[in-house]
Amino acid sequence: METIISDNPKELGMKAAINGAELIRKAIAEKGEANIIVATGASQFEMLAALIREDIDWTKVTAFHLDEYIDLPETHPASFRKYLRERFASQVPLRLFHYINGETDPVTECKRLGKIIRDTRIDVAFVGIGENGHLAFNDPPADFQTGEPYIVVNLDEACRKQQLGEGWFGSLEDVPLQAISMSVRQIMKSGAIICSVPDLRKADAVRKTLLEPVSPLVPATIMREHEKAWLYIDKDSASLV
Prior knowledge:
alpha/beta, 7 helices, Rossmann fold
């Protein structure tokens, strides 16, 4: 996994977006279309803002949703569907966006999405790392073995406190206990991974991701085994490495 350090989150987001855009354009040139995975959260603000400004034929791009809370209305400020519609999908003329519906039966929704993505070659996955080292909503100890593309996961307290700390919820009790998440193995099937991780509060997670043994206890470490992965960090998130 190649690591790129920037001075600030805006520069980080720009560099990550430029690399991602090049990979998307290459996929379109080679096969006439591109398939991507899109993450959410505060870590993706600058990257998505830069990505939508890139010269890409978005009408040839299909996007997949990385994770979503269970039983959280789309109207809620923390809804990832709301986030993606407002910050990304409404800004570019995508061919299609496969959203996760967290307000329906989660097992059925996992099966529905799994059937679609199993037949899809993902060209670029845009992801982040949680304060607890999670990848998507695969909190430690993450399931590195399941072959299911989407799974129902329990959110640990550290993950839920992060969501509260980022201002998405009014209290810890308001943060859902479960989510639908793309599995670790499904993310690792992507042709390329662009991981954007700004902010001082992510410094320890970045340190563990780069320096500790690959383990379900630090799910993001698995990206070190990917042949084409980039980790974009800023001076704050890189401060412990």
